[in-house]
TrEMBL record:
InterPro entries with a match to the protein in the record: Metallo-B-lactamas (IPR001279), NDM-1-like (IPR050855), RibonucZ/Hydroxyglut_hydro (IPR036866)
GO molecular function, one term: hydrolase activity
Keywords from the UniProt entry: Hydrolase
Protein name: Metallo-hydrolase/oxidoreductase
């Protein structure tokens, strides 16, 4: 790598931070966002408010990129970085189909791209629309479909590191987590978010709760989410109780009463105990996410009225 190339990419990404989470080896986080207040608009602006991390796992002459970055420039930065560390065999894994996780992929076409089979289906279905967005839909995305897919789990070896790709139906049906058994390290994608999860598929909330219990059965020691407090990620990530805290929030959001108390409270009150206990970290932008979650729950309950109960608790 020519240093001038790296400087040029870096200067085009003035708010990108790059660090190694404490206590990890060969793991790098590339973090952007939490640079502006929340305003509900499009995926790009919302992501800058929430902040997003992508990760690399580098070992020997191999590297894995977990998520393709917010823009091709972010992806190019990661690729240039892992190459500078000696990586020649480079794999990219998409955590799920949401735009903020796949938008940079046009810069990663030389890598081996893997995702869940449903991620490929979703992206194939929406590729044209993502390439030609409406005026308020955020930047155009040059969608790159994964060359390889898996269904339940897949094992990769990145240099000397064993990496498990695990599908859990949390946040979205196609979600992939990476698990490093030797370290007990979980890369959660959007299954777990700090401050609270984004309810993208409210019709599957019951499944998400059951799947969170299954996730809690994985021997996890530390968790690195896509959207989380950068300082906590730099300090080594979140504890396993992050999984239970996410379930607690969802159960409050979908409390089996006509109007759950969480619907009229600020998120900082809804998850106060977990914030005070240090399990979660407060980020103001999640007040906006919580408001959207409440609206999503209201809509799904309205729709399910009169129809036979399916997946709604
Ligand atoms: Zn997502």
């Amino acid at each position: 790598m020519a240093n001038t190339d790296f400087s040029k990419i870096s200067s085009s990404l003035p708010t990108l931070r790059h660090f190694q989470p404490h206590g990890t080896t060969g793991i790098h986080a590339y973090y952007d966002g939490r640079t502006c207040p929340w305003h509900s608009s499009n995926w790009y602006d919302e992501t800058l408010a929430l902040g997003v991390a992508t990760y690399s796992i580098v070992s020997g002459d191999s590297a894995l990129l977990f998520d393709a970055g917010l823009t091709p420039a972010h992806a190019e930065y990661m690729l240039t970085h892992v190459r500078s560390l000696g990586a020649v065999h480079i794999t990219t894994v998409y955590s799920h189909y949401h735009s903020d996780h796949i938008a940079g992929a046009s810069a990663l076409q030389e890598t081996r791209i893997i995702a869940h089979a449903r991620t490929k289906e979703k992206l194939a279905h929406s590729a044209e629309e993502l390439r030609n967005p409406g005026p308020d839909d955020g930047p155009s995305i040059d969608v790159v479909l994964p060359a390889e897919t898996y269904e339940e789990r897949m094992t990769l070896r990145i240099g000397s590191v064993q990496v498990e790709l695990l599908n859990f139906e949390i946040h979205t049906q196609d979600s992939t987590a990476l698990f490093l058994p030797a370290e007990g390290l979980l890369f959660a994608g959007d299954m777990l978010e700090d401050t609270v999860t984004y309810v993208a598929e409210p019709e599957h909330l019951g499944t998400h709760l059951r799947e969170l219990e299954r996730l809690a059965g994985v021997p996890v020691k530390r968790i690195l989410p896509a959207h989380g407090c950068p300082r906590r990620i730099e300090e080594g990530g979140f504890g396993k109780e992050f999984i239970e805290a996410t379930g607690r929030y969802l159960r409050k959001l979908d409390e089996p009463v006509e109007e759950p108390g969480a619907w009229t409270r600020k998120v900082r009150d809804v998850v106060r105990e977990d914030l005070e206990g240090g399990v979660l970290v407060f980020c103001e932008a999640y007040e906006g996410v919580h408001e959207e979650n409440v609206e999503a729950l209201k809509e799904i309950r309205e729709e399910s009225k009169g129809s036979s109960p399916t997946d709604v608790l």
